[in-house]
Structures are given as C-alpha cells and as structure tokens.
Amino acid sequence: MKPKKNPKKDLNKNRGLYFIAGLALVMLLAYVALEWKTYEKNSIYIGSIDVPDDNIEEEPAIFQLKTPPPPQPIAPPVIEVVDDEKDVIEDEIISSETNQEEEVVKVEDIIVEDIDIVEEVDFIRIEEAPIFPGCEKASDKKACFQEKMKEHIRKNFRYPEPAQEMGIQGRVSTMFVIQKDGSISDIRFRGPDPLLEKEAQRIIGKLPKMTPGKQQNKSVRVSFVQPIIFKLN
C-alpha cells in the first residue's frame, strides 16, 4: 500500500535540526536584548580608564599651627614718693618741784660736767638741715632737700621684673643717716617683699654726698626717713 503523504514534504524528518536552530536563534535574540544599551542624545560616552594605584596622587595632609596668644603686657609701674611722715617725739616734761623728804646736796658735792650736743638728730628737729647738691642757694633748704629726694628716686627707680610678674607691690620704709662728713650710711628698710626692699636699698645707696647738718653750729649725724611706694596699674 502506498503512503498518502509525500516523503519529501514530511515535516518530522528534520524536526531536530529545526529545534536546534530555533533554540540558537532565541538565545541569540536574548543575548542581544540583554547587551543592548541606549544613550541620551546629548551625552558622550568616553569609556573608563583604569589607573594603577601607584599613579594616584594622595591629597597632602595640612596641619595648621595654632600660634599662642601674645603675652599680656605688663602694666607700667607707678612711682609714688611720700613725704617724710615720721612723728615728732615730744620731750617728756619732768616736774622740777623739790620733795621735802629728799636730802639736800651741798654745793661742794656737785660735779659740773661739760655738756656736749646730741650726736644724732632727726631731720625734722635739726636746726640746719643737710644740704642736698643743688639746694645751696635755696631759701628753704628742708623743702628743697625733700624735693631733690623725690627727683633722685624717680630718676633711679626700676621696678624689679620678678616683682611685676608676681604682682608684688607695696610700701617700703627706708631710713638712713647723713654722717658728719655728708656721706650716707646705716641704710635700713622694711617692706612687704625682699625684692622691693633690695630695690629701695639700691636707690638710697646711690644718693650723692651732701653738706652735713648742724646743731648748735656743729656738724651732727642726721637721720632721715623716706617711704617708697611700689604700685602696679
């Protein structure tokens, strides 16, 4: 019996080949669809450049040095010279009345001694004050002496730097003696701190030689007190 279908037109003859070809075509279309890329009209794609790590320039580290604030300026010292304020010691008044119970001394028993003047007199009580150089023709030599003392202190004054840094200030009382030959000696001082005392001693030690003071027309030692005030603004 002859077959009704034409063997040349049998579709099942190359079915495996068609299947493989179709599968390859589908895979090709899927690959193309996955790899398809679209770009904006105005954008330009330049690709990517791989740069090795060795060629990458690192950003330098910047350290800002903070400068300390300038030191606070030290306030300039203020010199204040105080006039001689030593109190005058009043003489003690002794009663001259005789007591009847006391034994009367005979005239022959009285020994008369030579009376000498006092060796040292305070500046306030001196009859003829010592003459500071430059006060020879002054009418009031005591006032001129005190004014010259102030000028001498202002001229030679130096506030000790350690005392300024520590804020030390106060009053230093100085006392010295003008000898019979006009030289300065026996410098004594008392103050709140040794730094100020040392400076006061240095100032008084630079006093010039003077004309000595006189009591009863004789040269005597004259004591003088001069306060010096160290003050910071």
TrEMBL record:
Keyword terms, alphabetized: Cell inner membrane, Cell membrane, Membrane, Protein transport, Transmembrane, Transmembrane helix, Transport
SUPFAM superfamilies assigned: TolA/TonB C-terminal domain (SSF74653)
Domain TonB C-terminal per the UniProt entry, residue ranges: 144-233
Transmembrane segments: 16-34
Membrane topology recorded in Swiss-Prot or TrEMBL: Single-pass membrane protein
Gene Ontology CC terms: outer membrane-bounded periplasmic space; plasma membrane protein complex
An example Gene Ontology biological process: protein transport
Pfam families, per database record: TonB_C
Subcellular location, record wording: Cell inner membrane
Tree of life domain: Bacteria
Gene Ontology molecular functions: energy transducer activity
Family affiliation: Belongs to the TonB family.
Name of protein: Protein TonB
Lineage start: Bacteria, Pseudomonadati, Bacteroidota, Flavobacteriia, Flavobacteriales
